[in-house]
Amino acid sequence: MAVYFDHRIEAPESSAVPSHLTWHSALPVLAVASSSPTNEGNVDLYLQQGEYVESCHVGRAHQPRVLRWHPTKPVLALGWENGEVMLLTHPSGDQTVLPNTHTASITLLEWSSSGSRLVTGDQTGGLAVWKVDARGRLQGNHLVKHEYNKPLTCCIFKPAAPGDDVAMLARASVSGDESALDMFSWKGAPLKMGPQEGLAFYVATADGKVHSVDERCKTNTLLSVEGAIKKLFYLIKREALAVITETLMLSQYTLGPEGGAQEYMKVKLSSKTGQNVDIVWTENSLLITVSGEHVIRLWDLERDDNYVLSLDESLGFERGEMINCVSYCAAKEILAGGTSHGRIAIWRMVAQPGSSKGDTSGQWKLQTPTEIGGNVTQIQWGSSLNLLAANNSNTVLILCEHVMSAHFGQQVAAVQLTPTQLSITQFNTGAQLALQSDTHIKGVCVTKESVTVWNGKQVTGYELSGTVLRSTGEFPCDSHVVAVHGENLYTVEPNRVQIRTPQGTVKQLLTFSKAEGNPVLLSVCQSYLVVGTDTAHIRVFDLSRRDAKAHCSAKNLADQIASLGALRSVKCNANGSQVSILISQVNGRPDHKVYFYDVEMDTVTHFDFFVGRPTSGISQCEDSERQQFQGTELSGRCPVSHFWDESEPRLFVCETVPISSESSSTSSVDMADVSVVTLFCTQEHGLLLQDCYPKPAGLQALLALDVPYYYFSCKPGERDPGLTEVSATTSAPPNQTQPLKGAPVQFPNMVSRRALREFVGLETCEKATRDAMLNFSFYLTIGDMDEAFKAIKLIKSEAVWENMARMCVKTCRLDVARVCLGNMGNARAAKALKEAEAEPEPEAQVAMLAIQLGMLEDAEKLYKCCQRYDLLNNFYQASGQWQQALETAESNDRIHLRTTFYNYAKYLESMGNKTLALVYYENSDTHRAEVPRMLQDDTSSLEIYVNKMKDKNIYKWWAQYLESQSDMDSALHFYECAQDYLSLVRVHCYMGNIQKASAIANDTGDRAASYHLARHYEGHDDIKQAVHFYTRAQAYNNAIRLCKENGLDDQLMNLALLSNPEDMMEAACYYEEKGTHMDRAVTLYHKAGYVSKALELAFSTQQFSVLQLIAEDLNENSDPALLARCSDFFITHSQYEKAVELLVAAKKYHQALELCVTQNLTITEELAERMTVTDSKDLSEDARKEVLEKIADCCMRQGNYHLATKKYTQAGNKLKAMRALLKSGDTEKIVFFANVCRQKEIFIMAANYLQSLDWRNNPEILKTIIGFYTKGRAPDLLAGFYEACAQVEIDDYQNYEKALDALTEAAKCLLKAKDSSGGQQEARVADLQHKVSLIKKFVHARRLYPENADEAVRLCEALLEEPELDPAVRIGDAFGFLVEHHCQQGNLEVAYRKLEELQKRLPSQNVRYYISQASLEALQRGMGVSIDGDDHRQTVKEEDEVEEDLNLS
C-alpha cells in the first residue's frame, strides 16, 4: 500500500487565495495563480516539495485567467484578464510579453504537441496563432488572427497523421529485418515520416460552433451544436471529435478527409444540475466527470460502457461528503478526486487475472484517503515524478507517493497508516497502539522495547513499556535506513555505518573502503547485522558483544552474479551463516532469482523463481509428485520481499509475484496473484522447497516469519474471510492512560498472522514440540524418513500426529501419512486410504487422505490436478455440493451425468423437496419407475403427473395399479393409452369380453395378445380360433400340435412351411407315416434341409414334379451321388441343360461336355467358369488342361471364339488361343494378345492377320505389322511384306521413290534371313537387286527430266530395251513418260507412234491409266484420230480382276 506525503507550498506572505494551478508535463515545477480581494493577481512557481522560486514571481493589477506550460520547455504562457499574454521562463524568470493583440479577457491558451505553435483566444472571439522557436522563444508577430465574434471556450490540436516510427525501424534494421532495411535504402519505397507535430486545430465558441483551422491557418466552420461548448476531445482510434456542451450533451463526430464532420452518436451525460462540472479525458477513451456528488461517473467510449465510483465510509469518508474535482494519472493508472471535506480519494487500477484493463468498475480499488483539510476545489497530476497538486481553497499542497512503512520484530509490529501515523501491535499482550509523529515517517524499526522512526532528516526514538510509548530522544540524521539492536541504533553515511545511542551519540564507526562503497542497506536478525553497499558489497557483523565485530570479510557480489545492477535488499539468518540478497539487473528490472551467500563456505547460490528450481547442482528432493503439484505455482515469478525466521536459521520465506507485474508502476501488493514460498537453506542440502501457498485475500504484504506464524499487513477497510484467532485483539484495558505519543486504538487490525502449515492447530504448542515439528518437516523435505520419525517419536499428542498427516497432504507423502494415521488411531481413514491405493493417480490417493482429514479444499484441488472428474463428482456429492457436482458432470464427467441427476433427485426426495426431485428424476431418465414410487402415497398428485407426462410406461404402471384396485374400466382406459394390448386382451378375457379381445388381437396384430387369446380359445376347445391366433402370434409349433391332434391336414402344411425346420420335419414325418399327401412330405423334407430324404422319397413315390423343384436347389455342395442320380433322371426326360448343370455340380466335366457336344448345347461363360477347375484337389493339372481344351473346342465349334480364346489361354495353349482370336476378327484384342504372349509364332500369326486389313491407309497397322515381324524374327516374311508395299506404291500411286525405299528394306531383311531353301534365297536376293537397279534408272530419268529432257528420254528408251522390265518398272509408266514428253514438245506423230506401241505391248490395258487426259486430248486433236475402246477394255480388265480374286478365294 502507498501513502501520500503532503508538502504545503512555501507561498510568500503577500500571496492571496490560489485560483489556478498547473504542472509542467515533465519537470517538477508547479505554477499557481492567486487572486487578492483588491483584484490584484499573482503567478508563482514552486518545486517538488513546495519550495518557492523567487525569480519567477509575476504580479499584475489584473486577475490571471489561463496558465499553460510549454510541452517540453520550462516556459509558462500566462493569460490575463485585460487581454495580456506573456511567456515566463523558469528558472531565470525571463518574461516575454506578446504584442498587444487581445483587448478582452483571455479565455484560452493552447500549445501544439511540440510547442512550435501557441494559440491565444479572448472573450470577444479574437484568436491569434504565434510561432515559437525550439528554445521556447517567440518569433515575431502573430501568424494570423481570426475574429469569431463569440467568446472562445476551448481549443485542441489535431494529432499528426501516424508516420513510420524511425527509431523502431532502425532497431528492426539492426536486428536483421530486411524489409525495414529496405525502407532506409534507395531501392525501397520512400519513408513516410509524417509531420513532426500536428499544426491543425479545432476551436469552439460559446454559441455552439466548432471551427477548424488547418496548417496554413485557414479557418472554416466544422459543425454546430446547441448550447455553449465546454470541452473538445479527439478520439485517435476512431479519428473522431467528441464535443461536450454546458448542458453535458455529448456528441461524437467522424471527420472526413475533406474536412466535413458527420454525427454518429449523441447522448446526455448524467450529472447534478446547477453545479460546476469537472471533466477529464484519458488517452484510452475514458470520459470522467464529477459534479459535486458523492460519485465519480465514467464513460468508456470505446466499449460504450458507463459506471460510477463512490466513496466508502468504512475507509474514513463521511456521509454527505461530495467530490468537487478529479484528475487521472495515466502512468500509474490512478484516479484522484478532491472532496468537500478536505480529503483526496484515490482509486487505483488493480490488475485482475484474466481480465482486460478498464473493463468494469470492479477493477478500480479505492485506497485510504489522504486528508489535507479545507474544501478541495482543484487537483492535478503532473511532472515525470507523478506528483499531485491540490488546492484546498486556502493553499496548495503537493502530494508525493511513498510506499507504506512497516516492520516486525520480537513480537511487535508497526504499520504506517498515514504520513505521520503508525499502528503498533503487540502480539504478546494483544494490545494495539497508535503513534502520531510530528514529522513525515519514511521508515520504522521496532523491537519488543522500542519504536524508531525517521524521515531522512531526523531520527526519533520511543520506548515501549507495556502499552505505553515514551519518547527517548530525537536527533538530526540524514540516513535513509536505520536498524536497531538492543539499545543501539545503526545509521549510514558515506563509507561508514554509525552505531548510536537512542539519543544519537555515536558510539562506534564501522568503516568501509572506497572499493567497498557506501552502505545503503541495513538488516538485523538476532545478534547479526548485514550491510549492503552501493557497489554490491556485503558485510556481516556480530553484535553479541559490547562492540560490533566483523563476522566475515567484505564480499563483492558483482564478481559472483552476472548482470548485477544494484542490491535491492539484504537479510541474514539467526546465526549469521546465510545472507539472502535481492538484486536489480543492469537494465533496472528486478531479478527473478533470490541469491544466498554462505558465510562459512564463501559461496553464492540462488533459487530461480522463473523456472521454479534452485541452482543447478544443489540438492533437491526428488519427489516428482510434489514437484508436479507445486511446479505450476512457482514458475514464471519474481521475488519482491524476503525474510528469515527470527529464531530458526534454516527457515526462509519469500513473497513472489508473476513476472509480468514485477516492474509495474503499481505496488506489487495490489496484485491478486501473490505467492508466499518457504525454503529450507542449509550447507549440507542446499535449498529445499518447503511450502508454497497463495497469499490470502484481504492481506497486504508479508512482514515477517516467526515460527509458528507468518505475519502480514492488512489492507485497510478489508477483512480476511479466513481470519479467526490469529489476529491480535484490538481490545485494551479500560483504565488505560494515554501517554504522550501513543494510545490504545479501536480501529481495525493492520497486522494479521497465519500459521505455517505444520502448525495449523498447534499454534500454542511448547517449544520442544515446535522444534520437533520443524525437524520433522525438514527431514521430510530432504526425504530422510528415519530422521523424520526420530524427530517425532516421543510426541504422544494426537493433534500433532493429525497435523503431520495434514502436512503429508501438502507434500504428497502417503507412506508417512499411514504412520500418522496409525498413531492417531483413525481406522476409518486408514481403511479409506488403503482402498484408494487402487487408483492409478497418486494425487487421487492423496485426495482421499485429505477428505478423511477434513481438508476438502485440498482434496478438490488434487482431484482437479489429476483430472479425475469422476472422483471429483463423487466428492461434491458426498460433501453436499450438488451444484458443483452437476456442473462437473455436465462439463467434464458426462458419462456419469444421469447418475448424478439420479443421486441428486434421491437427495432432494430425502429432503422432502419432491417437486424438484421429480425434475431431476426426469433428467436422469428414471422417472418412469421412480416418480410413481415416490408419489404412490399421494394418488391425486400421481394421477395428475400420469396425465401430464403422457408416457406409455407410466400409463402402464398406473393401469396396473388401478387393476390391483379392481377399477377395471379405468385400467382398460390407461392400458389402451399405454398401447399394452396384452393387458387389454387379458383383462377382456377375464371379464368375458371375448369378442372385444379378438377384435383387439386382430386389429393390432400384437403377438403376445394373440398368444394369450389362443390359449384362452384352446382352453375352451375352440380349436379353429386357437389355431388362427397361434398363427398370428407366430407360435406355429402350438398350431401344428393342434392340427395334428385334430386332423387338420390342409392347415398343417401351410403352418409347417411358416415354421422352423424342426416343425417341418415333424409334419413331414406325420404325412409319411399317414401315407397320404406324399408330395407334401417330400416338399417339407426338402424345405427342412433333408434333401437326401426328400429325393429318396420322391424317387420311391415317382414325384417327378417335386423332384424338379428339389434339383433347382442342388449345388456343388450336395451329395455327388444324388447329383448323378438327378442328372440321369433329367437326361431320361430330355432336360439336358439341367442335366449338364448337375453333372458340372457333381464335377463330372467330361460327361457334361459330351452331353453339350451330342445335344449341341451352347456353353455359356457362366457354365464354362463352373467347369474351370481351380482347386488341384479335384483334378490333376493335366486333366484340368484337358478339360479346358475340350471346353475351348466346343466353344470353337459353336463360334464363341472369345470364350474359346480364354479357355485355350487358361489351358496354356496360346497358339490355339491365337487362332481362335484370329477367327473372331477382333484386331484390338489380337494385337494386345500378341504383345502379352510375346511368342514368335503368335507375332507372325498376328502380322499375317494384320496384312489382310487395310494397312495401306492406316499407318498404325503398318507399323504394327513391321514390329510383329521384327519381334517374331521372320525377316523373310518381312521382306515379302516390304515387296508388297513397294508393289502397292507402284500400282496404286506410281510412287517409285517409296517403292525403291521399300525394296531396299526388303533386300536388307533378306540378307539377314538364314537360307534354309537350298539356294532359292540367293536367287530371290538377286531378283530384288535387279528390280532395285531398274527402278533406280527410271527414278533417275524422271528426276533428270527438268534439267536435261533429251538425256532423260534417251535413258527411258534404253530402259524399255531391258529384258524383264515389268513388273519392276511398268512398261505403261515408261511409255507414258515418253508420250507425255513428245506431246509437250509438239511431236504428236512420235507420241502417237509410242502410244500405238504401248497398245500393242499391253492390248488389254487402259492407256488412260498411264497417260494423262490432256495428252490424249491433244493427240486426238492433232492427229485427227479417235482413241476408242478404252473404257471397254478397262471394264473387261476389271471383270477379269474380279474373277481372279474370286478364284483366289
Taking Cα atoms only, what radius of gyration do you get, to the nearest Å?
A: 59 Å
Structural class: alpha+beta
Unreliably modeled segments = 616-632, 662-670, 723-741, 1429-1449
> What share of residues are in beta strands?
25-35%
User: Average pLDDT value?
Assistant: 78
* Number of separate strands: 63
Helical content class: 25-40%
Distance between the termini: 123 Å
Shape: extended
Main pleated sheet: 5 strands, antiparallel
SS element count, helices: 46
Oligomer: single chain
Defining key terms:
about 1450 residues; extended; disordered C terminus; single chain; alpha+beta; about 25% strand
Structural commentary:
The protein has 1449 residues and is of the alpha+beta class. Strands 26, 27, 28, 29 and 30 form a five-stranded antiparallel β-sheet that branches. A five-stranded antiparallel β-sheet has the order 34-35-36-37-62, with no helix packed on it. Strands 46, 47, 48, 49 and 50 form a five-stranded antiparallel β-sheet that branches. Strand 58 and strand 59 form a beta hairpin. The longest helix has 25 residues, at 1320-1344. It is extended and about 160 Å long. The relative contact order is 0.02. The model is unreliable at 616-632, 662-670, 723-741 and 1429-1449 (pLDDT under 50).
Quick summary:
The chain is of the alpha+beta class and 1449 residues long. Helix content is 38%, strand content 26%.
List the SSEs and their pairings.
Layout: E1 2-8, E2 17-23, E3 30-35, E4 41-46, E5 52-60, E6 64-69, E7 75-80, E8 85-89, E9 95-97, E10 106-111, E11 117-122, E12 126-131, E13 144-147, E14 152-157, H1 166-174, H2 178-184, E15 201-205, E16 209-213, E17 219-224, E18 229-235, E19 240-245, E20 249-255, E21 261-268, E22 278-281, E23 286-290, E24 295-300, E25 305-310, E26 323-329, E27 334-339, E28 343-349, E29 364-366, E30 370-371, E31 378-382, E32 387-391, E33 396-403, E34 406-409, E35 412-418, E36 421-426, E37 431-436, E38 443-446, E39 450-454, E40 458-465, E41 468-476, E42 482-485, E43 488-493, E44 496-500, E45 506-511, E46 519-525, E47 528-533, E48 537-542, E49 549-550, E50 555-556, E51 564-572, E52 578-585, E53 593-598, E54 603-608, E55 613-614, H3 624-634, E56 637-644, E57 651-658, E58 675-682, E59 686-694, E60 699-706, E61 709-714, E62 742-744, E63 751-755, H4 767-782, H5 785-792, H6 798-811, H7 814-824, H8 827-836, H9 842-852, H10 856-865, H11 869-878, H12 882-891, H13 897-910, H14 914-923, H15 927-934, H16 939-949, H17 952-964, ...
Antiparallel strand pairs: 1-33, 2-3, 3-4, 4-5, 6-7, 7-8, 8-9, 10-11, 11-12, 12-13, 14-15, 15-16, 16-17, 18-19, 19-20, 20-21, 22-23, 23-24, 24-25, 26-27, 27-28, 28-29, 28-30, 31-32, 32-33, 34-35, 35-36, 36-37, 37-62, 38-39, 39-40, 40-41, 42-43, 43-44, 44-45, 46-47, 47-48, 48-49, 48-50, 51-52, ...
Helix pairs in contact: 1-2, 4-5, 4-6, 6-7, 6-9, 8-9, 9-10, 10-11, 11-12, 12-13, 13-14, 14-15, 17-18, 18-19, 19-20, 19-21, 20-21, 21-22, 22-23, 23-24, 24-25, 25-26, 26-27, 27-28, 29-30, 30-31, 31-33, 33-34, 34-35, 35-36, 35-37, 36-37, 37-38, 38-39, 39-40, 40-41, 41-42, 42-43, 43-44, 44-45
